[in-house]
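Input record (one chain):
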Amino acid sequence: MLEGITIQIIDDELQIRRLLDITLSAIGAKTILSENARQGLIDAATYNPSLIILDLGLPDIDGQQVLKMLREWYTRPIIILSVRSSEDEIISALDNGANDFLGKPFRTGELQARIRATLRSNENKADLTVLEFEHITIDLANHSVRKSNEVIRLTATEFSLLALFAKNAGRVLTHQYILKEVWGHTYMQQSQYLRVFVAQLRKKLEENPSKPKLLITESGIGYRFGE
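The corresponding structure, as predicted from the sequence alone:
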């Protein structure tokens, strides 16, 4: 159930807005329905919803641009729901700050599950200094990592990479985004750096590095940490 959660839907299709309104209201969420980008931006600023569901194919402003505009101030989760679901569109949306992406047509049950997972992974995350994932404990303040209470030695770069993953648990991070955040803009095309360091982290953290359960590869896009 999503009692007490406010979800904004920015979509120009009346049938989609009605479907989501009925689906989400039935599980306790309050909905805000916005029929175009300009109205969506006004409603987001007015109501500051718990989560935004955003279509990319809006009639007045392209959804990718709307996403960038929202991310100038809106820090809560955004899920893209769009028929524009090519790999390039997904990568652009994730790079522009989306937490998740679901293509149309979609299953309402899957959307509900993704909403719950996204809200869980973002709940109070900004206030946490110690993050726990299965058998891994990450202390962000003290730059320490434990695996089943055993201290794991990481290099500074390995820890920076792991911290980025942990603070975005459940969210798909693109190769370019990770490289920019950890190594800087000049390394955004150096994907070999990322492959090497992910492999090193898997050896140190995963029970079975060849079948990772924490550092999940999203083929052609990037990585998802946990959840």
